[in-house]
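Reviewers of the previous submission asked for a worked example of the structure-prediction workflow described in the proposal, so we include one complete record here. The input consisted solely of the amino acid sequence. No template or homolog information was supplied to the procedure at any stage.
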Amino acid sequence: MKTFVYRLYQLLVAAPLIIVATILTAVVTTIGCTVGNGHFWGYWPGRIWAWFICRVLLIPVKVEGREHLEPGTSYVFVANHQGAFDIFLVYGFLNRNFKWMMKQSLRRVPFVGLACKASHQVFVNKTSKSGIANTYSEARNILKSGMSLMVFPEGARTFTGHMGFFRRGAFALADELQLPVVPMTINGSFDILPRTRGVNFVRRCPLTLTIHQPIPPKGNGAEDIRQTMEQSYDAIMAALPEDYQGYVENKDQ
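From that input alone, the workflow returned the following structure tokens.
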């Protein structure tokens, strides 16, 4: 009975509000970034939108470890990628201005793609060597400007709730610019809406964001990158529930 009532609420109340909020947020972000401060308008409307979606769906959210972050410091944030709600959790509750590194395919999402482009989020272009180089150049410039960057190093959502392998790009950037890497564990997103269910009703499950201690730069070089990547992976994995512990191959990576 509770499931039926919650699904009815999603259909009749939450979904219309989310659609209106998404369109309004995209329009405000696009106009704001075009005529005003891109750092402000590229973050705050999206943050409020993400917070609103979690709240209107009545999803409990818990954040641990915000005290590890220093004001005014530029970070490279890395997290596991459990599902679509990772975006709402991080955007709405990290409480940190940053730019996303995201899939190129998101450009085609109505309204959202336009807002992401206007707000100078970083689209990952894997179609050519020059595209990859341009992606890293954009990310490098963002970090040099004092902004932080949010990356899912797996590059794809999990099919099982378990973690796949990490790609080294974000860690190489942090190493090059001598910036701290902040591992973050996301839990609950897979339970709310597994990737295998596509666009569907969500389950009301708790969402948790665990912010680990920043990993300071160790030096410059391949071995330093590898160590930071492994340390981040282990920290994120250790904070996952036992059911989602361990590596599972993700063929979408």
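The chain has one domain: 59-244. We consider this example representative of the routine output the project will generate in years two and three.
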